[in-house]
Design brief:
single chain, about 230 residues, mainly alpha, Arc Repressor Mutant, subunit A, Tetracycline Repressor, domain 2, disordered N terminus, disordered C terminus
Length: about 230
């Protein structure tokens, strides 16, 4: 008699955990947007953690449950583009040309039509501009990129194939991550639109080709499943 209830409880736990994680992520994003709004209005120095919590509609203790500082609170906004890029890249098949897959996924993550992508880019531009005068905010940006690189490495390693040099895979993950970082930083210094000339998508193509052009993993001579078949 008790066995069916036990099985039901066991099978419901993953769904409950998934719902909990989604709620946590949603709360973190609400806090991140509130922080970004206040930074835009008052600057990081003029903003307090209490104000961010109030704008997000959460208690101060909830704020500190998720974030160590007010600058740390914008991390989810700054990392969202990298999350999209890695997800798109992970969908590439093992037969895909690695260089083309990196470029296609990067461009798609930065230029997908829709309010979400454009909003994310606008937030990123404002935060990167604010970070010029705020070392703590710059540190968050660098940390987000470091974490993105670490998460990108296993994706690149899988797509490169079993014969790929681990050092080359690591260099590629680092170069690709820096290509997006530099493209966004350069774009943030301009008033270029989110699409078209001077956009993040256009700049990231140039940065990717400049930073990864000399890597053997992307040249025909490298061999293996991940090598490019054309210059």
């Amino acid at each position: 008699m008790n066995q069916p209830r036990t099985n039901q409880a066991r099978t419901s736990r993953p769904a409950s955990a998934s719902l909990t994680e989604r709620r946590k992520a949603a709360t973190q994003l609400d806090i991140a947007r509130a922080a970004a709004e206040l930074f835009a209005e008052k600057g990081p120095d003029g903003t307090t953690a209490e104000e961010i919590a109030g704008r997000a509609g959460v208690a101060l203790r909830t704020f500190y449950r998720y974030f160590r500082s007010k600058q740390d609170a914008v991390g989810p906004l700054l990392s969202s583009g990298g999350d999209r890029w890695r997800a798109l890249l992970a969908d590439a098949g093992p037969e895909a040309d690695l260089g083309e897959a990196l470029e296609t996924a990067a461009v798609a993550s930065l230029s997908t039509p829709g309010d979400t992508t454009e909003e994310g880019l606008r937030w990123t531009r404002g935060l990167l501009r604010a970070a010029q005068d705020d070392p703590a905010l710059r540190a968050v940006w660098y940390r987000v990129n470091q974490e993105s690189e670490e998460r990108l490495l296993p994706v690149v390693t899988r797509l490169a194939g079993p014969g790929a040099d681990p050092l080359e895979a690591r260099l590629l993950a680092a170069a690709a991550t820096d290509a997006i970082r530099v493209a966004l930083e350069q774009w943030a210094t301009t008033d270029a639109a989110t699409t078209g000339a001077g956009s993040p998508a256009e700049l990231v193509v140039r940065c990717l080709r400049e930073l990864t052009g000399g890597l053997r993993l992307l040249t025909p001579e490298a061999g293996g499943d991940g090598a490019r078949t054309s210059p």
